[in-house]
Amino acid sequence: MAKVFVNFKDQHYTLETEENKVLLDLLRENKIDIPAPCGGKSRCGKCTVQVVGGHVSDMTEHEKNILGKERTDAGYRLSCMTKVLGDCRVIVPDFSSQAAIMTDLSGITFTGNGIVNKLTIELNKPNVHDQVSDLERISQKCSIKLFENNPVFLNKLPKLLRQQDFKPKAVFIEGMLADIPDSNRKKDCFGIAVDIGTTTVAVYLYDFVSKAPLDQMSFLNPQKAFGADVISRIDSCIQSEENLIRQKNLITDGINRSIETLCNKNGLEKEDIYTVSVAGNTTMMHLFMGISPVNIAFSPFIPVTTAMHRLKPADVGIAINPNGLVYALPCISGYVGADTVSAVYAVGMHKKDKVSLLCDIGTNGEIVLGNRDGLYSCSTAAGPAFEGANIKCGIGGVNGAIDKVKINETVEYTVIGGNKKPIGICGSGVVDVIAEMLDKGIIDYTGRIVDKEELDDSVSDDIKNRIITYNGDNAFLVETASKTGTSEDIIITQKDVRELQNAKAAIAAGISILTKESGYSYDDIDVFYLAGGFGNYLKIASACKIGLIPKELEGKIKGAGNAAGAGALLFLSSEDSVKETSEIKNLTRYIELSTNPDFSNQYIDCMFF
Question: Averaged over 274-284, what is the pLDDT?
Answer without folding.
Answer: 95
